[in-house]
Specification:
Elements (H helix, E strand, L loop, with lengths): L1 H5 L1 H4 L2 H14 L12 H14 L5 E4 L6 H11 L7 E5 L7 H8 E2 L11 E2 L1 H4 L4 E5 L6 H13 L1 E2 L8 E2 L3 E6 L3 H6 L5 H7 L2 E3 L10 H17 L4 E2 L1 H8 L6 H15 L4 E2 L16 H12 L5 H10 L5 H14 L4 H7 L7 H10 L13
Parallel strand pairs: 1-8, 1-9, 2-5, 5-8, 10-11
Antiparallel strand pairs: 3-4, 6-7
Helix pairs in contact: 3-4, 4-5, 6-8, 11-13, 14-16, 16-17
The structure holds adenosine-5'-triphosphate and magnesium ion.
Length: 374
């Protein structure tokens, strides 16, 4: 720890140092929140976070996997007026089966569903006065969305199987790596709930847009590993060249894994590319935003399929995976019917055969949907 303290100005920006100090004051060294990096985008975001944390309005954090959404949620708690009250985190998909989500949020009475063997408080009550962190909010079931909306709007809710109305005063911070706008357009997420959750919006930038932060993060990880295992190691020049052009699809979480893999598998004190290269992903994840835009244009009937999708695909501007994603989303809205999809996208019915031939010929039919009907 001593050498990290000596070099902490090296790893942390001013707002990150304040955050670190506040978190240590609140819960000791083990609870330190450490946000490494000096890139302008990161520092700007932390400055904004410090300001908005002082208020009571709900916060939505939208960012790629592994960018630090949960750390930011904790930071909002630590820097806000509710810091001496609980921070309770709920992972939405983990409890996705109907009753379980609702019970996790609002509690239940004994016997209210199979498996409810005793009364149980939900996280709203446990967190009363504090902060509830709803992770992966995009996966929340519809019934749970309805109850959540009511709880936010009125502060009131009912545990499952109970007719007593309870109240809890919580600040809600939610996080998602999916586009909630898109889920709303697909009718998987309630628009009114989205408005309630998104008073303040944070979009932590992906690591590839944070300048040299990756280098600092690597040093930080190596320093931590050194402290824990007693051997100082560093990446050699070739390894750093390889990583300099790597787009980090899994962001900080992935970087931590790569540093640990390189550290563990390298024989001497130099980590070489071959020690970790097979962990690197090939290419970027599908550019969700481009696919989103296209999907909405197709749904909004403002363009035609042959120009917007067929042509860019043939020209290799659009990947097979992107087209499959588009078709799968469309089919979901069309209840699995290709003919209905043609109607939704205003493709003339006379193009049906041509459309199906195109999908078949280029292996663009998404998995999980039956064959076309006639
Ligand atoms: N800037 C940073 N400096 C140091 N560590 C960081 C930073 N950002 C994130 N981390 C660490 O990276 C890991 C991933 O962060 P976190 O769990 O907050 O991300 P997430 O966005 O919630 O990820 P996921 O989408 O996978 O749930 C954690 O171990 C966290 O402490
Ligand atoms: Mg997370």
């Amino acid at each position: 720890m001593a050498d990290v303290t000596a070099r902490e100005g090296h790893f942390f920006s001013e707002p990150a140092l304040r955050l670190r100090a506040a978190s240590v004051r609140l819960s000791g060294a083990a609870g330190a929140i450490e946000i490494v990096g000096h890139s302008a985008r990161l520092v700007e975001m932390l400055g904004k976070l410090e300001k908005l944390a002082r208020y009571e309005e709900p916060v939505l954090i939208h960012g790629e996997s592994g960018v630090g959404k949960e750390s930011l949620a904790q930071a909002i708690h630590v820097l806000g007026p509710r810091r001496h009250r609980p921070f309770v985190s709920v992972n939405c998909p983990q409890y996705q089966e109907g009753n379980l989500t609702v019970s996790e949020l609002f509690g239940h009475r004994k016997g209210s569903f199979t498996g409810a063997i005793a009364d149980r408080k939900g996280c709203f009550e446990t967190a009363d006065g504090g902060v509830v962190f709803l992770d992966e909010i995009g996966d929340l079931s519809m019934p749970a969305q309805v109850m959540l909306l009511r709880a936010i709007a009125s502060g009131e809710f009912q545990p499952l199987g109970s007719d007593m109305v309870r109240r809890a005063n919580v600040r809600i911070v939610s996080a998602t790596n999916r586009s909630l706008n898109q889920l709303v357009a697909e009718r998987h997420f309630r628009n009114d709930l989205l408005f309630r959750l998104r008073y303040f919006l944070f979009e932590p930038p992906p690591l590839r847009e944070r300048g040299d932060d990756w280098r600092l993060l690597l040093d930080y990880c190596l320093e931590r590993l050194h402290q824990r295992y007693g051997i100082a190691k560093r990446f050699d020049a070739d390894a750093l060249t390889l990583l300099a052009s790597y787009p980090w699809p899994g962001n900080v979480r992935e970087l931590i894994g790569i540093a640990a893999t390189g550290y563990a598998l390298s024989d001497g004190d130099l980590i070489r590319a071959h020690d970790f290269a097979d962990r690197l992903e090939q290419g970027l994840p599908a550019q969700e935003s481009d696919v989103d835009v296209l999907f909405h244009r197709l749904q909004g009937q403002s363009g035609d399929f042959w120009r917007l999708v067929h042509h860019p695909f043939i020209e290799r501007d659009l990947s097979r995976r992107d087209v499959r994603t588009l078709v799968a989303r469309g089919l979901r809205d069309a209840q699995g019917s290709y003919r209905r999809l043609l109607e939704l996208w205003r493709i003339p019915a006379s193009h049906y055969q041509k459309f199906m031939d195109f999908l078949r010929h280029h292996r663009l039919k998404p998995q999980g949907f039956g064959d076309e009907e006639t």
